[in-house]
Amino acid sequence: MFVIDRDLEIEMKKVFVLLMIAATMLLTGCNSSTSLTGEYATKEGGRADIKVTQKDGKYYGAVQFRNKWEEVELRPASRDETAKLSGTANPDIIDNALVGNGFLIAHVKPGTTGPMFRTGYVAIIGFIPAVLYKK
């Protein structure tokens, strides 16, 4: 007969729960903020005004201002938090947004809430909304 130590049994249950949480996050797309990395323009066919990068597991957003790039660290935001910050409905948000220090970038269904979301990408930088064109 195989006997498992009580402490080992508790540790195995913890590992099982963590694996279930990780699998749920993977299947529901909780880490889909990665799809927001890239370059964006505020004018169709224009040069990149906004860049979103990922380095060492962290996200960074950079905005070109007076020919200089200002960079801010970003973090993934939940769909509910994104809806609250952007004023759009939760089901309209395709990916988790990235937010940080007056910066929000989100991927929403094109045409969701009028012309503001016509391209499917939106940024709010210091309370100023911008339609984005992914390059």
Overview of the molecule:
With 135 residues, this protein is of the alpha+beta class. The chain folds into 2 domains: 1-30; 32-134, no CATH class. Helix content is 23%, strand content 36%. It is built from 2 helices and 8 strands, in the order H-E-E-E-E-H-E-E-E-E. A hairpin with a 2-residue loop joins strand 7 and strand 8 (128-134). The protein is elongated, with a radius of gyration of 19 Å. It comes from Methylovorus glucosotrophus (strain SIP3-4). Keywords: Plasmid. This is Lipoprotein.
Helix and strand layout, with pairings?
Elements: H1 6-28, E1 38-41, E2 50-55, E3 58-65, E4 68-77, H2 79-86, E5 97-100, E6 103-107, E7 121-125, E8 128-134
